[in-house]
Amino acid sequence: MMKGLKILITLVLLVPMLADAAPRKERWSEEKANEWYYSQDWAVGCDYVVSNAINQIEMWQESTFSPELIDRELAVAQGLGFNTIRLFLHDLVYEADPKGFKQRIAKVLDICESHGIKVVMTFFTNGGKFDGVALGEQPGPTPGIHNPEWRQTPGAKAVNNPAEWPRLEKYVKDILKTFRKDKRIYCWCLYNEPENDNRGANSLPLMRETFKWAWEVNPDQPLTAPYASLMANDDRSNLAIWGFLSENCDIMSFHCYNPVNVLMDKYITPLKKMNRPIICTECVGRPANTLFDMYAICRKENIGVLSFGLFDSKMQCKFHWDSKEGAKEPKIWFHDIFHADGTPYDQKEIDFIKQITSDKKMDPLAIPQTVMLQKITMKGTNLTTCMKVVEAGDTLRLSIPVSYLKDARRITVSPDFGKAKLGEEGYYAFPDGTTYTFKYRDEKTFTLQDMPCASLGVKTPRQMYMSHVKGMKQTVWIQAYRGAQEYQTKYIFRIGEAGVKPEEDIIIDFIPVKEEKELK
User: Fold this and answer.
1) In the β-sheet with 455-459, what is the strand arrangement from edge to edge?
2) pLDDT range class, residue 46, cuts 50, 70, 90
């Protein structure tokens, strides 16, 4: 009996050793990354620090750890439809109490799981302060200052000193080994904004090592680090770091606080060429970069999206980066979604979030039943949102109420299911007999104006349909727009530009076609 017990104990002790994964020598293949990504729901949520913490240390150290508050706040996130948050760790908390730190991480993961939320776990960051960084009581907020006491980890001196790296290796590997099979972790962000050279931090050498350490552990979850500047068009742009990320990340990630046109041209278009999943792990810096724009575009493009902040907190992220000490509460918040008491900053944002997160299913081959809607008002304001089309028998119908058109100078409707990639088989067929194919790089954008019949036939490898404009058709131009690598149909209603008073809803019917001959 004792002999059998000894054998059993020996096997139990060996399980962790036998469970260690073989080190990997390269990043995931494109096929593996995309299979992982499309096997789950669209990732949508926020970067999260509990509201009573001014930095990572105060969130994670034992004396100020607040699981009850975290639970209450993440219940609110769940109510929005969020399924992903991003958390920031700190090496000093680990070194003070490795076992306790891992237990607190596990506790937060338990809370997240209870609310249907997964975690993007972040190790290093160059942002914030490091002088005087210590555990224990943290400084209070400086009135009017954005994120005044955020902490670098491990700090520029350690980043630039390889003699410090063995302790960092122990930290990173221990956390990765402990949670490498934990399905509650969405992915590992190994280095936040490595292009940030705050206080002289030279991130690339340490980041190379951090990826090697992660490859040696070989967790089940993918590895990433975000692009945070405009390639070759930003003071912080570091092409060596861009090159490393392009060659080593399992999934691509980026941060964007720029307007919509920059988001598409400088981030999404180049990143899509890598044929890997993409997630925006920081965004929304009002007013230039709005929650409406970021969520709508990322949903349309099958890109995960995490906006920065949930509750107004000790971090004071409602203030702009450039806010001065003593500044009054801004009318337009920079980050965050809720006041400290749980009331929304903007109820329209809450309604929009709940609408866009109501269906998070992803299928790379599916035909999204949504359109991008851009409204330019008579005052020049540019509003972008995402709308669903409604099934009406065998027809998909888009209805834009006349009340929405009252102050519109121009409304542009861009159906997700009207897109095609450069070189694909297919065409757009206009009512005047013009056929516009997707095979050639030199084709220009084609616009048809003043049509007696406002219709368009579309054939792509995924869909064939006829579209008919039935409301406000006297103002519409139909356009076949060619971007860098794709084609898009657009319905442009020039309401104010044409001097037309809107007196009816815009209605567009999209009628699926089974036989190609019916389009001609």
Assistant:
1) 390-392, 395-400, 506-512, 464-469, 455-459, 427-429, 435-437
2) very high
